[in-house]
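Students often ask what a 'structure token' actually looks like in practice. Rather than answer in the abstract, let us consider asparagine synthase (glutamine-hydrolyzing), a protein of 615 residues. Its sequence is given first.
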Amino acid sequence: MCGIAGYLGQPDRSVIERMTRSLVHRGPDDEGYFVNEKVALGMRRLKIIDLEGGKQPMKGGHGATVIFNGEIYNFRKLRSELETVGIRFQTNSDTEAILHGYEHWGTQLFARLDGMFAIAIWDEHTQTLILARDRFGEKPLYYGRFGNSFVFGSELKALLQHPAVKRELDTESLQQYLVYDYVSAPRSIFKNILKLPPASCMIVRDDTQRIESYWNLRLTEKSISLEAAEELLKEKVERAVTSRMQADVPLGVFLSGGLDSSSIAYFASKNSAQKVRTFSIGFEDQSFDESQHARQVAEFLGTDHTEHIFTTKDCLDTVPKIFSVLDEPFADASVLPTFLLAQFTRIHVTVALDGDGSDELFGGYPTFQARKFLWLYRLFPTAIVNSLISRLPTSFDNITFEYGLKRIAEGARYPKLIDEYSWICSFLPHLLSQLLTTAFTTGIQDPFAVLARYIRDAGSVSDFNKMTYLYSKMYLQDDILTKSDRASMMVSLESRAPFLAVELVEFISSLPVKYKMRGLTTKWLLKRVMRPLLPPGIADRKKKGFGVPMARWLTGELKPLMLGLLEPGRLRREGYFNPDFVARLIAEHQAKKKDNRKLLWNLMAFQLWKDKWLA
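Now compare that with the structural description of the same chain:
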């Protein structure tokens, strides 16, 4: 696991050192550089595999030099293939498998990799820079062209260390952030800086560049018996977990007590020669606390379990720490407990397995259940139904029925499927003209256009599969995996997601919808497989999410920070947001007339980011 950075165009050792050392949190154990008359490459390393032999940059005998961030879980298989054609290895690292794999297969290598990665390869013979990113974007990779320089890095902060790079807010990206809580690939918050899309590689030579896709998520419904589907799912989840347990450093499992993390803990325990270490955190607010369920699973599986209960103050104290490192605005408040869990876990281990990906692939979110009732909502006149829903008393608890109904009513004005995805958004597009000043609303395209494109890309599949495709391409890639990567790497912890093993992903994507959801039961097949293997009730627990009591905090402990960041005079001077509209959001929330937690935290997160990175 590393942080990588580099650029083409008049290399300067001091510049690449500044870029690379801005990523020290991603790799505290080592650093390395490759600089010639045309390219500069740098890396910071967190030692995981082949602690002494896996140094980077790694240079081959045929003119290729590699730096990379991530882990390749099938590197031993690739190594065996390459050895059969006479290639000799000097180390036991996955980096060398990438190096020789590129020398043998060229860019076709990337489709052979099962792992999480952001790779940069300088090919001396062709004077070409090749960049590549894993299938779901588990590892980040930003790039941009400024004058004669092409610059890239694991995080925006690395690019910002290059003297040619400018910090200019991209207005369309700002609107996208306000809607989604993040900026979706390929955009970034800054003009002229982009994210390399997942499952693609970029070939850069002189002033030209092109992007090639090497994989895409294909949703098909293949005929398979229930018995065969059960057996294959069990086998593939187990294989995915064991493949991600490769490490020359201590490893553990994040355990929430939900279906996904408990499944991973089960298979990790089954395939480990010693007790698996599991880690969980809890909160004083019982509406958000899951620690007792994690404890139940740990006792049942016999893991070496460690937990910590955090106070509200503990969680709020992380806010300045997180926003001093988050170099792109990000408003998923669950980054706060994710950071606490990573920080706590890092005391004990260097690698942790998590359950990311299962909900998107199986359609496990409560919105998939809610969509079953949309036909009922549409039976009655919209104005009457919305009027009745608006009279429901506001609750500040986690994932309430009332909150879901109000989100349905709010999104009903949008086209089919987009209306469903809008439930997890913050400011819906029709609110942007009220929120933003005219300087930031002129000539901007519909922020929901990206959703419409992904729905088209999904092809002729069921609406259920279109929604899982949409969640995988948007929420998983740019929210969940971004959160996991940034929160864990802030404390130099590597998080791994077994559910994103390519073999498992392609199998789940081929299952009939009836095996993913039956009636109101989400993740139906996974629950059926795991029910006899886990404590009673765990497989069928209601999804809780990794949330925080943000709604309450905004009327209590976080209120002073909110009022300072969103003070009308300040908003007027800065010129982004309409202070009267923002004041109304605050007043509604304080009076408990509306639960505006997502909207207000979205604005606060932007202000915290802007103060650090745009000032």
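One point worth highlighting: The chain has a mean pLDDT of 92. Ask yourself how you might have guessed this from the sequence alone, and why that guess would often be unreliable.
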